[in-house]
From TrEMBL:
BP terms from Gene Ontology: detection of stimulus involved in sensory perception
Pfam family, one: Lig_chan
Coiled coil regions in record: none
Top-rank taxon: Eukaryota
Record gene name: Ir93a-L9
InterPro entries on file: Insect_Ionotropic_Sensory_Rcpt, Iontro_rcpt_C
SUPFAM superfamilies named in the record: Periplasmic binding protein-like II
Topology of the protein relative to the lipid bilayer: Multi-pass membrane protein
Organism name: Homarus americanus
GO molecular function annotation: ligand-gated monoatomic ion channel activity
Family of this protein: Belongs to the glutamate-gated ion channel (TC 1.A.10.1) family.
Official protein name in the record: Ionotropic receptor 93a-like 9
């Protein structure tokens, strides 16, 4: 049908046919709530009640049944419908009747196609969910009863309060079972957000999209590589060039002053190498040589050079300390291209098999390669632990990973062992899985919109993340107080990684000194 907002009329006196129609109309997705189904039949009341109560099409959808109660001249038609939720529980009620004399008479307080899901009157509504913080979390209460928390639970609780139903979480052991119960209509909805994927739409529908949840990858922070350039990093290339130019120019000017003095006053001739050595020594913080001339011009030049050496040395030593204790880290993988080039393996929880298949069927070579690298692991804890221990990455919802990193992967110094890449892998819409053509979807969507547009969902998420961070910091502080530390425990010792450049410079000097020594021996 081009539009399912129509009226469908079924006429049959055969209960087997009507039961078959109910079954196949469900499989064929004939009806939605906007479709009004009118069934015309003639059945005994017990059989009619059983028919209306035992089939989803008749009990839950927008259906009324016209039952011919008698034949002319006492012809009477009763109009029945099934109300799944009333103060007295689920029941079949007569909403109207028709006789040739009185015509159609609607009973007081009834309507031909009454709303069925505006009020559940405290009835239990089955839902399915598994732990997926910060969206859904389960805690064992003091009395052994499970207590629930998380943004999606708070969202469900708000809807339950609005529609007046009691939440009943159906036990499940896997994400596949969570959605399978929805497909079987045992569960009305899976109340943990699921990304909308084409393959999933073949098995179930989605509620209103209330979240744009993206997949992000987490990887271990890159380690510090030994680099001799740590001695070079404190100053920029331009500063080093200017210092070199000053070191070349100053001895020339000083030598010129010395030569003029020697020509005017006579005396011993100072070697050029000695002047260069003295100027270089002053730059490196050595004592002021006594053999320098005493003329005012040389004193002014030497004083200027000493001032320059003091400023340069202080700036260099200060920055050198920072670069030794906070060395330059290698670049991190931030994009999907970086991830493909860097990671040897990408892990994901069991529900990731659908993403793996989805990526593998993509026309993009990048996504195909991503699908090839993906492997399924039992849980996010296993995946993230492997990311820390090996050259791997873990793929999961961004908020979920942030919470897990804050809970389990904080280093001894308070820094996280894992980071999230800046680029999302699969930006997508997320919603709750519900059965195909669920008649309660309009009511559910309206409640979802009200909560989301009020900003409550984001507020709950911020509160939960803040609470997790506070608990993590508290746990870290407790661990620190339990350790027996010395007064200088906060100081960080430098390793060979930090001082590799200094040792390389020393070895270079020893090598040059050795070469010079052998040259001098040969020259004797």
């Amino acid at each position: 049908m081009g539009s399912r907002s129509v009226r469908v009329v079924v006429v049959s006196h055969d209960p087997v046919f009507l039961a078959t129609f109910a079954e196949w109309s469900l499989k064929g997705r004939l009806l939605v709530w906007a479709t009004k189904l009118l069934v015309v039949t003639s059945l005994p009341l017990p059989q009619l009640h059983s028919l209306l109560s035992s089939h989803w099409t008749f009990s839950m959808m927008n259906t009324i049944l016209l039952n011919l109660d008698d034949t002319p001249p006492n012809l009477r038609v009763s109009v029945y419908t099934h109300l799944p939720y009333t103060p007295e529980g689920a029941q079949v009620v007569e909403v109207a009747s028709w006789t040739p004399k009185r015509g159609l008479v609607v009973r007081e307080g009834r309507s031909l196609f009454p709303p069925k899901f505006s009020n559940f009157y405290g009835a239990e509504v089955n839902v399915t969910a598994l732990r997926f913080p910060p969206y859904w979390d389960e805690l064992e209460g003091p009395d052994g009863i499970k207590q629930y928390s998380g943004t999606d639970y708070f969202l469900l609780k708000s809807i339950a309060d609005s529609l007046n139903f009691t939440i009943n979480v159906v036990p499940t052991t896997s994400w596949a079972e969570v959605t399978q119960r929805v497909e079987e209509r045992v569960s009305f909805m899976a109340t943990v957000l699921h990304n909308v994927l084409p393959g999933r739409l073949e098995r179930y529908d989605y509620s209103w999209v209330y979240e744009y949840e993206s997949l992000f990858f987490s990887m271990a922070q890159p380690g510090i590589k030994p680099q001799w350039q740590s001695l070079y990093y404190p100053l920029t290339d331009l500063v080093w060039a200017a210092v070199l130019l000053a070191l070349l120019l100053t001895p020339v000017v000083l030598l010129l002053i010395i030569r003029v003095g020697e020509w005017r006053d006579g005396g011993d001739r100072v070697a050029t190498g000695t002047v260069v050595q003295d100027v270089t020594g002053m730059l490196l913080g050595q004592n002021l040589p006594r053999r320098l001339p005493t003329v005012i011009s040389s004193r002014v030049l030497v004083a200027s050079w000493l001032m320059f050496a003091l400023i340069f040395g202080s700036a260099y030593r200060g920055n050198l300390t920072a670069f030794l204790t906070l060395p330059k880290y290698p670049p991190r993988a931030e994009t999907m291209q970086d991830l493909i080039n860097t990671a040897d393996r990408i892990t994901m929880q069991p529900y990731g098999i659908e993403f793996k298949n989805f990526f593998s069927k993509s026309n993009s070579q990048l996504f195909k390669r991503l699908g090839q690298l993906m492997h399924i692991v039992p849980s996010v804890n296993v995946g993230q632990q492997q990311a820390v221990d090996k050259k791997q990455a873990h793929l999961d919802a961004g908020r979920y990973q942030q919470l897990k990193i804050a809970e389990r992967f904080i280093g001894a110094d308070g820094t996280p062992k894992l980071y999230l890449g800046q680029e999302s892998i699969s930006p997508g819409m997320a919603a709750w899985p519900i059965p195909h053509d669920a008649p309660f979807r309009p009511v559910l969507d309206r409640c979802l919109m009200a909560v989301i547009e009020a900003g409550l969902y984001e507020r709950w998420n911020d509160d939960l993340l803040r609470q997790a961070q506070m608990e993590s910091r508290k746990r870290y502080k407790q661990q620190e107080t339990e350790k027996e530390t010395e007064s200088d425990s906060s100081l960080r010792s430098l390793t060979i990684t930090h001082l590799q450049g200094a040792f390389m410079l020393l070895l270079l000097g020893l090598g040059l000194a050795g070469v010079s020594f052998f040259v001098e021996l040969l020259a004797v």
